[in-house]
Structure formats: structure tokens, C-alpha cells
Design goal:
The complex is a heterodimer of chains A (645) and B (357).
Chain A (H helix, E strand, L loop, with lengths): L20 H11 L4 E7 L2 E6 H17 L7 E5 L4 H12 L3 E5 L5 H4 L10 E4 L2 H14 L4 E4 L13 E3 H14 L3 H8 L5 E6 L9 E5 H13 L8 E3 L7 H13 L3 E4 L6 H8 L3 E4 L1 H16 L3 H22 L6 H22 L6 E4 L6 H9 L4 E5 L9 E2 L12 E2 L4 E4 L4 E5 L11 H7 L6 E9 L5 E6 L4 E2 L5 E2 L1 H9 L4 E7 L6 E7 L1 H10 L7 H6 L1 H15 L8 E6 L19 H7 L1 H9 L3 E9 L5 E12 L1
Parallel strand pairs in A: 1-11, 3-4, 3-5, 5-6, 6-7, 10-11, 12-13, 13-14, 24-25
Antiparallel strand pairs in A: 1-2, 8-9, 14-15, 15-16, 17-18, 18-19, 19-20, 21-22, 23-24, 25-27, 26-27
Helix pairs in contact in A: 1-2, 2-3, 2-6, 11-14, 12-13, 12-14
Chain B lengths: L12 H4 L6 H20 L2 H27 L7 H17 L4 H20 L7 H21 L1 H4 L6 E2 L4 E2 L2 E2 L4 H21 L3 H11 L1 H6 L4 H28 L1 E2 L6 H14 L4 H29 L5 H22 L4 H13 L9
Helix pairs in contact in B: 3-8, 3-11, 3-12, 3-13, 4-5, 4-6, 4-11, 5-11, 8-11, 9-11, 12-13, 13-14
Classes of the chains: A alpha/beta (645), B mainly alpha (357).
């Protein structure tokens, strides 16, 4: 039974626009019911849902979730990769005035209890058997969630645990209810209001336990309206929903923006096929973390290093010139006729095929944010003709605070405040923000809320920054991250690390030097790129650890660091470094799930190494503690050599 | 470099199996078709009659043979005879007042009926022995045509094709025969492109790879070998009718001798077994290389004043022609189609070396 034509009214806000995501969904079904809303790749082809079908599905799920007891004001734990059914369930929770609380799918069960602290989540939605197993174990430990709903039934046939329900059963129950109760559909669309919570997210937990961040419908609709007014979003985009569901970016940029602006939301088949599926979609709006752009650049560089001589020479001739032109253009230079001609030919030969290969040939609006981006990566993609821009935002503001506008793009700024966003710099240099998208306070944490929100509802971001002459915001780093060397030179380690990570051979790096007389670095090589480099030079290796200690590899990394050092002021050059025997790993607590460094953990874990970096020794024997996947611990002794740059 | 793949996605599997999935390929096909249609207005009639028309008709014949050789893996050295049967059967029918459209199908059926009898030999013999059996067909058919004046109109006589029309258009003058042949060739090309996507095409491929294995997986080699001979001979017979009406206008037995059969086998092998595009390339090379070489040599001789003896001047193109064919097959034993594919792949993965994700 379809709702087509039956729902003609929905809650609206003071702008006359739909007040909630469910209302927006109903509006799409009424205004553009036949247009595709969601597309999901399944066994190689794209399955489409029109907006009417999406609304049908969401309302059926809502009615079904209500019948199993999802109550208003409660959270629905959601854990899994991007799936259309999971997005539908999130919206269904919204229709019931409940809210989804997405959790990163790779969170181990020990940490999982931190992500069910708020909103009494008695019901959880798991993507597949793997997540169901995790949730069952969680229930064994803390008695929650009571009901586990699963999307993918594969492997679930013989589970007899109580409280396991298939998502298709929920939808079937809901459909039966919708058929029996004629007014239910319209009722479900009208229940939620602008002040209801739309989603509960968690802060990254870089500094301790993750805080719950509830975002209301008014925050999200307000933020998207600001972004649309600034031209950062258009109606009818083609979106690619591949970001981790637990990151604010996915909920706001994929789901909410898609629903509010009638986009086509394309969902890849699996996380592993995302890069391939991206090419089939060719989105018009694309958002990726700087790391993902770096990885893309690495793929191109590795591919080109392997290419035929003619193709490689063309690439090597055009790309540096294009980057140089882009660098000048960002400074206000207008290309000469010769440069324009060269760009036209370069586009024909190199840039357009590369954009096509990446699947970004239609990406009119390409963004990056979350952390600073390496200038080289930034310029590379802009030189290809992808109008990459930086944006700035945090979970607390729906990630919609400031973004660059074409014509005022500079590597060191994050752009200007979006329309409707007020930015203030306080006396400590901290950035304060007021906007409709700023949240109303942390979940069950009045102290943290009081710390984060000023009495006049400005959000304290914790970022140090300043406004430049054009009114563009410059973010220097975390207020807490600004550190000094023993000589009093102020620097932000992340900034240097990002420059180093531009090298395809360096995957992670920790720059040390706070309170010391010089800078040093712990480097984690990129296994794939460095491995490829080694294979081409007939260097044999059997493991990451062995590869990282090869003298040739150490020399390679030395050269990479020396290159970055040239751009650094004298007092802030890296003098010594060590190649680590392993990559930093979220399971060892060295980086967060969003791949930010946890410096304290690194400095503690590698204290011997850090000492050796500063006492002038040539090598160091390091007893590495290893946590195996089954939880056992072991120790491995490694001899790591230290090199001067 | 020219190929764009971003944004190509499918919501149904049947769309994913379409013949030309890339816009660049569709554009190429559209441009070539448009050029072929506009050709009579762009180039001199001499080129149409002596180059384009033979290219189209010989390609039809080679496609029919390719279905048998490349598709089902059965060699056929008597394909010229098959075409001859079609030509004679249809011309006799037309002289008796049967319209061209019907006579063409009659020619096809006659050729298929005779072809399938000799094809039945393929059920018992393979490889060289099948080559011998089909060669026998060539000679028997030649003999029958010449010896029965009722068919040939006497041993030295030639049989004139009456005036006919195709779908209401009189097939006379310079352009009408060209367009008729082009239309029939286009339909045949679409058929050949699609046949390998059908269960029939896949069954032929199974028989080609190994007939024992085919019968184990449930493909009856008996049926599909006969079907392959039937379909291939039918196409040959139809081509004979088109050849007679659009090109020769007057047919005589010597037009369908062994050298035509061998020429067609060479076209299929040089073009690439089993490839539709290869057929056109192979026909182009075999038909035009001697002409082009001949002209090049006379031009070179005149230009540089080389005193090439007259008999060497006649033989040199043929020597070069042989060397050219051997050279192509040495470079790429899978034929011109494979060479085209290699070039296409080079641009398809541009600017990388391999397809990578």
C-alpha cells in the first residue's frame, strides 16, 4: 500500500520549509514522488527507490519500530556500514520522535559500552551477523540492548537468542499496521517537531571519554539552509553516501542534505568497492577527509610511476606546470594566453582522464575538512580542475560553520562564515560560533555544556584562529595543541605531520618537540606504496617491520623529511627520526577511529623510543607490546635505527 | 584519453549487457554510419563502386563465414560455392518473376540446404578432414553449375540479372545498389553483434572450444554444428543474391571459384576469428592492400625515376602484400581486431598502464 497522494501536509518551520527530516521526506514524495531518492548498488547494479517508495519504507519501519517499543526521546543504536535500509531506519526513528545513535562499525565490544550511555537505547539496529554478535556480547555484559534488529539475514538462521528481529519483519509489521490504521501514515509524518533530536553523535574522544552530542532537526535544517544560501549545496545534487555513518559528515552531508534538497543519494555496495562505485556515480558534490584525498593522490602517483613512458612523461610535464599555475592563480594571477592553451591541452591529455578515472568529473562542489590539508595535495586536485575547497565545522555545529568560496581560496584559510553564522574570536584567540546549527548542549552533561556554550549561545570551539583581512577564517589548530619548543618557538605538530604525510611513503607520523630543544619524528611508512617502491628496486622484505628498517627505505624517508624541512623555519626542522616497526593502530589506542593521533598514548607507549631520539643514540631496542586480535598480549623486541636528517 | 567511464551506471542487468556501453564507442559507430550514409555525396562515384560497395558485400560474406569459423570453430574452404548457389538460385528466381526480397531469402535457403548437407560431414570429421570435405563441395558445386546449362546458361554463358527493386526502390544506377547493400549489411552486422550474446552464440562457443565438453554441459554438438552450417550458409546465400544484384549484375561460374573461398578465409583470419569489427578490417586489408601497394610502387617509381622492370613492377605488390599479411599475423596472431583492441585498451586506461581501481 502506497502513501502516494495521501499525505499533503507536514510540519513546517518559520521559513516555510519542512521542519524535520521526515517532513522533508513527505514533501519530496508529494513534489517529486517519481524521482529517484536513494540508489544502492547491489550485486553490480543500482537499485533505486523513488521518494514515494522511500517514504513508504520509512513509514512502514516507523510503524514497525513503534510496535516493538521504540519510544519518543529514546535512542536507537545503529551500527553498520552505509546501507539504504539503515538510513531508512534512522529516518523511521525520527518519525517516532526517537533518534538514531550511529556507532562506528569497527568499535570493539569493550569500547562499545561508551556509545550506549545516552538515550536509553534498548533497541539496536545491526547491519549484519558480525555486528549482531558484538551486540549480543554487549548485552551479556551490560544487559543492553534488549532488542537487536538486523538488516542482512545472512548467517542469522540459527540464532535462537531472544529479542532478535529481522528488519524486514519490522517493515512487514509496520505495513500491516499502516493498512489497518488509515490515519497512521499522516500521523507519523506529523509527530516530530523542529525541536526534537534528529541524531545523537559522539565526539571523537581525543581527550578522554566521548561526549554525546544531540543534534536537533532545527540545527540540521538551519545548517543546511545556511549552506544552501552560501551556494555550498544545490537542490538536486548527486551525492555519494560512503562516509562512516557515525561521523557527523555522513548524517548531515549525505542523509540530511540529500533529503532536504532532493538529491539522489547513492550508496556503494561495500566499503571496499566505494572507489569503484564512486566512478559509476560521478557525484556532483563530494566530501572527503584530507586523508582520503591524500590516499587518492597516492593511488595516482603509484599508478603513474608504473605507467608507460609516454603517458608518464606527459604527466610529469603537465602536472608540475598546472600546479604552478594554480599556485599563482590562487594569488590572483590571471593566466596568460600561453598558460590557458597549455591548460586546455593538459586537460585533454591528463586532467580530464584523471578526473574521469576518479569519478570526480562532475564534482562541481568538492570539499575537504576535519583537519588541515597538505598544500601539495590541495594544489594537485585544484590543478586538475576539481574546485576543491576547505570547510570548517565541528560535530557541535552540524559541521556547517565556514567554507571557502571560489575566488577567495587560499591554502591557509578555511573560508568565510556561511550566511547566518556569526564568528567571533575571543581574547585567548579561540573561535566562537553562533548559528542555527549550533547544538543545544551535550547529552546529560551540564558541566561540559556550560563550558562549551557561552551564556549568549556562542559555541566555544577550542580551536585557535583569527580572521584575515578578507574576513576569511584562519584556523591555527587546537588551543590546547599549540606547543612550544624549549627555545620558545610555537608550533602545531599536526601541521608539520600533514606536510610529511603528503609523501606517498609516509602513512602516519608523530612529530615530537614540545618543551624539547629540537623536533624529532616517529614515522610509520605506507606499506603499500613503500612496498611497491621496494619491489621495483628488488629489495626483498617479508613484513612491515623488516621493510621499515631497510637502509634504503630509511634513506628514502630521510629525503622526504629533508624536503619538508626546506619549507620549515630554522628552529622547527626535524632533526632526527625513527621508522616505527608498525603503523599506528586504533585498536592499540594510538589513533582515534577518525585517525587523529593520540599524542599522550604515543609518548607513553614509545617512551623509550622518544628518549633515544633525544639522547643521540644511533639505534634503540624497543620491547613492543602487542595485543592480538583475540585480546592476548605479547611482547616483541625490535631493534630500530635512528637517523639524523 | 577519449574514453569516459564516470557516471555510467545501470539499474538493470540487461542494460549492463548492452553492446556499446561507452559513449565514445557509440559516437564512433554513429560517426562511421553517418559517413557511410553520406559517402555518395562526399566522394566520387568511382570510389563508391570500386571500393566501398565491394567492402560492404565482401564483409557480409566474411561475417557469414566468421560465424562458422570464429563462432563454431568449423573450417570451410567452399564458401565461394555457397555464395554461388545463393547467387544462381536467386537470379533464377528473379528471372522467373520472384521479387528481390523473396529471391534473396530463397537464395539463402538454397545455399543453406546444400551447405548443411556438406556440413553434415563436420559431424564425423574435424580439422584438415573437414577442410577436405568442404573443398570437395567447392569443386562439386563448380562442376554442377558449369555442366548444367539449365543453371549456368551454358558453359561460357553469363546470366544477366533482371531489373529489380528493393522495398520499392529500383536497384539501378550508382547509389541505389550501394544503399541497398549498406542497409542489408547493417542489419547483418547487428545480428552478428548480438548473436554471441544469445544462448545460440554461447552454445556455438562451447562447441568451438571442445565438442566433447559441450555435450557434457548439455549442448548438443550435432544440432549446433548443423545449425552453424545452416545459418552461415544462409548468410552466404543471401550475400550471393546481393552480390549478383548490387555488384556483378551479370553472373558467371568463374566468379565463385576456389580463389573467392580462399580470399574469404584469409579475410576472416587476418581480421580476427570471431570478431565482427575484425571482418571489416580484414576485408579492407585483403581487398585494398594490393591496390594501394600497386599505386604506391608506381608513384614511387615515377617520382624517383626508378627503372623497375615491368614484370617486377607487376609482382612486387603481390610480394609485399604477402609479407604484409604475414607481418600482421606475426605481430598479433589474433588478427587486426586484436590490434585494434590493444590500441583501444591503451587509450581506455589512459593515463595509466593497466585498468586499476
Amino acid at each position: 500500500m502506497s502513501v502516494q497522494g495521501k499525505i499533503t501536509g507536514w510540519p513546517v518551520n518559520e521559513r516555510g520549509a519542512p521542519a524535520t527530516l521526515v517532513a522533508a521526506l513527505a514533501a519530496n514524495a508529494a513534489q517529486a514522488g517519481g524521482k529517484p531518492g536513494f540508489r544502492e548498488r547491489e550485486y553490480g547494479i543500482w537499485r533505486e527507490w523513488t521518494w514515494v517508495q522511500v517514504l513508504d519504507e520509512v513509514l512502514a519501519l516507523a510503524a514497525g519500530f513503534e510496535s516493538i517499543g521504540l519510544a519518543p526521546g529514546h535512542a536507537l543504536t545503529v551500527v553498520g556500514d552505509n546501507r539504504a535500509a539503515i538510513y531508512f531506519a534512522m529516518l523511521a526513528a525520527n518519525a517516532l520522535r526517537a533518534y538514531p545513535s550511529p556507532v562506528y562499525p569497527d568499535v570493539p565490544v569493550e569500547e562499545f559500552r561508551n556509545f550506549v550511555r545516552f538515550g536509553d537505547p534498548d533497541i539496536a539496529l545491526a547491519e549484519d551477523q558480525e555486528q549482531v554478535d558484538k551486540l549480543l556480547e554487549l548485552r551479556g555484559r551490560i544487559g543492553r540492548p534488549k532488542t537487536i534488529v538486523y538488516d542482512d539475514p545472512r548467517g542469522m538462521a540459527h540464532y535462537t537468542d531472544p529479542g532478535l528481529v529481522a528488519l524486514t519483519d519490522i517493515a512487514a509489521r509496520g505495513r500491516a499496521r499502516l493498512a489497518a490504521e488509515p490515519g497512521l501514515a499522516a500521523d507519523l509524518v506529523g509527530r516530530a517537531g523542529a525541536d526534537d533530536i534528529a541524531v545523537l553523535l559522539y565526539s571523537s574522544g581525543t581527550t578522554g571519554l566521548a561526549k554525546g552530542i544531540p543534534l536537533r532537526h532545527s540545527n540540521i535544517t538551519g545548517g543546511i539552509a545556511n549552506a544552501e544560501a552560501g551556494g555550498y549545496f544545490r537542490k538536486g545534487e548527486t551525492l555519494f553516501a560512503y562516509l562512516p555513518t557515525a561521523w557527523v559528515g555522513d548524517f548531515v552531508f549525505s542523509l540530511a542534505a540529500g533529503v532536504l534538497l532532493q538529491a539522489v543519494i547513492n550508496i556503494p555496495e561495500r566499503a571496499e568497492t566505494a572507489l569503484h562505485d564512486l566512478r559509476e556515480v560521478a557525484p556532483t558534490f563530494y566530501l572527503a577527509a584530507p586523508r582520503a584525498w591524500d590516499a587518492m593522490l597516492t593511488r595516482i602517483q603509484v599508478g603513474m610511476a608504473d605507467s608507460t613512458p609516454l603517458k608518464r612523461r606527459l604527466f610529469d610535464w603537465f602536472i608540475p606546470r598546472a600546479i604552478e599555475l594554480e599556485r599563482k592563480r590562487l594569488k590572483g594571477h590571471r593566466p596568460t594566453a600561453l598558460e590557458s592553451a597549455r591548460e586546455w591541452v593538459g586537460n585533454l591529455l591528463i586532467y580530464a582522464p584523471l578526473k574521469d578515472w576518479l569519478g570526480l568529473s562532475r564534482a562541481e562542489r568538492a570539499f575537504t575538512g576535519g583537519e588541515a590539508m597538505g598544500e601539495d595535495t590541495f594544489l594537485f586536485f585544484r590543478a586538475l580542475g576539481i574546485r576543491l575547497k576547505q570547510f570548517y565545522g565541528q560535530t557541535e555545529t552540524c559541521a556547517l560553520t565556514a567554507a571557502q568560496v571560489e575566488g577567495h581560496v587560499r591554502i591557509d584559510t578555511v573560508g568565510r562564515a556561511m550566511p547566518g553564522v556569526e564568528v567571533r574570536i575571543d581574547d585567548n584567540g579561540e573561535i566562537l560560533i553562533r548559528s542555527a546549527s549550533v547544538f543545544h548542549g551535550y547529552a546529560d552533561n551540564p558541566e561540559a555544556t556550560a563550558e562549551a556554550l557561552t551564556p549568549d549561545r556562542f559555541l566555544r570551539t577550542g580551536d585557535a584562529g583569527r580572521l584575515d583581512a578578507n574576513g576569511d577564517l584562519v584556523v591555527l589548530g587546537r588551543v590546547s595543541e599549540l606547543v612550544q619548543t624549549a627555545q620558545g618557538e610555537r608550533f602545531i605538530p599536526t601541521f608539520i605531520e600533514n606536510r610529511l604525510k603528503f609523501s606517498p611513503y609516509i602513512r602516519n607520523v608523530a612529530v615530537l618537540g614540545a618543551g624539547r630543544d629540537q623536533l624529532t619524528a616517529i614515522v610509520c611508512i605506507d606499506y603499500e606504496a613503500t612496498g611497491h617502491w621496494a619491489e621495483q628496486r628488488a629489495l626483498s622484505y617479508s613484513s612491515y617491520a623488516e621493510l621499515s628498517q631497510k637502509p634504503e627505505v630509511i634513506a628514502l624517508i630521510t629525503a622526504e623529511i629533508a624536503r619538508v624541512n626546506e619549507l620549515q623555519p630554522e628552529g622547527l626542522r626535524i632533526r632526527r627520526f625513527v621508522n616505527l616497526h608498525k603503523d599506528f593502530d586504533a585498536d592499540d589506542g594510538e589513533i582515534t577511529r577518525t585517525r587523529k593521533l593520540r599524542r599522550k598514548v604515543i609518548e607513553q607507549t614509545y617512551a623509550r623510543l622518544v628518549d633515544a631520539l633525544y639522547d643521540g643514540s644511533r639505534d634503540v631496542t624497543f620491547d613492543a607490546k602487542i595485543t592480538y586480535e583475540d585480546g592476548r598480549q605479547g611482547t616483541l623486541s625490535r631493534n630500530l635505527s635512528i637517523r639524523e636528517v | 584519453m577519449f574514453f569516459r567511464k564516470a557516471g555510467i551506471s545501470f539499474t538493470r542487468y540487461q542494460d549492463e549487457r548492452r553492446i556499446w556501453r561507452l559513449p565514445a564507442d557509440r559516437w564512433t559507430v554513429a560517426v562511421i554510419l553517418a559517413l557511410l550514409i553520406a559517402a555518395p555525396f562526399l566522394i566520387d562515384r568511382l570510389y563508391i563502386i570500386s571500393y566501398l560497395l565491394p567492402l560492404i558485400i565482401w564483409s557480409m560474406a566474411a561475417m557469414g563465414l566468421n560465424l562458422l569459423m570464429g563462432g563454431a570453430g568449423q573450417i570451410h574452404l567452399g564458401y565461394g560455392a555457397v555464395i554461388g548457389i545463393g547467387a544462381y538460385a536467386s537470379v533464377h528466381a528473379m528471372r522467373a518473376g520472384v521479387p528481390f526480397e523473396l529471391a534473396m531469402i530463397l537464395g539463402g535457403v538454397a545455399a543453406a540446404a546444400v551447405g548443411v548437407i556438406f556440413g553434415a560431414a563436420a559431424l564425423r570429421v574435424k580439422g584438415l578432414y573437414l577442410a577436405m570435405a568442404t573443398l570437395a563441395m567447392q569443386y562439386i558445386v563448380d562442376f554442377v553449375i558449369v555442366q548444367f546449362p539449365a543453371i549456368s546458361g551454358g558453359s561460357q554463358a553469363a546470366l544477366a540479372v533482371p531489373r529489380v527493386s528493393f522495398l520499392g526502390i529500383a536497384v539501378e544506377g550508382d547509389n541505389a545498389p550501394y544503399y541497398v547493400a549498406l542497409a542489408i549489411c547493417t542489419v547483418l552486422t547487428l545480428f552478428m553483434l548480438n548473436v554471441r550474446r544469445t544462448s545460440f552464440g554461447r552454445a556455438l562457443a562451447a562447441v568451438r572450444e571442445k565438442d566433447y565438453a559441450a555435450s557434457i554441459i548439455g549442448v548438443d554438438p550435432f544440432r549446433y554444428k548443423l545449425l552453424a552450417f545452416w545459418v552461415s550458409s544462409f548468410i552466404g546465400g543471401m550475400t550471393g543474391a546481393v552480390l549478383a544484384v548490387c555488384y556483378y549484375r551479370t553472373i558467371s561460374p568463374d566468379q565463385f571459384h576456389l580463389d573467392l573461398s580462399i580470399q574469404l578465409v584469409a579475410m576472416v583470419i587476418v581480421g580476427g576469428l570471431g570478431s565482427v569489427l575484425g571482418v571489416f578490417l580484414g576485408v579492407g586489408l585483403i581487398l585494398f592492400a594490393p591496390i594501394v601497394l600497386n599505386q604506391l610502387i608506381s608513384w614511387g617509381a615515377d617520382q624517383f625515376g626508378l627503372a623497375i622492370p615491368i614484370d617486377l613492377r607487376a609482382h612486387l605488390p603481390l610480394m609485399l602484400y604477402g609479407a604484409l599479411i604475414m607481418g600482421f599475423l606475426l605481430i598479433e596472431p589474433l588478427g587486426l581486431a586484436k590490434i585494434y583492441n590493444n590500441i583501444r585498451n591503451y587509450f581506455l586506461v589512459w593515463p595509466f598502464r593497466h585498468a586499476r581501481q
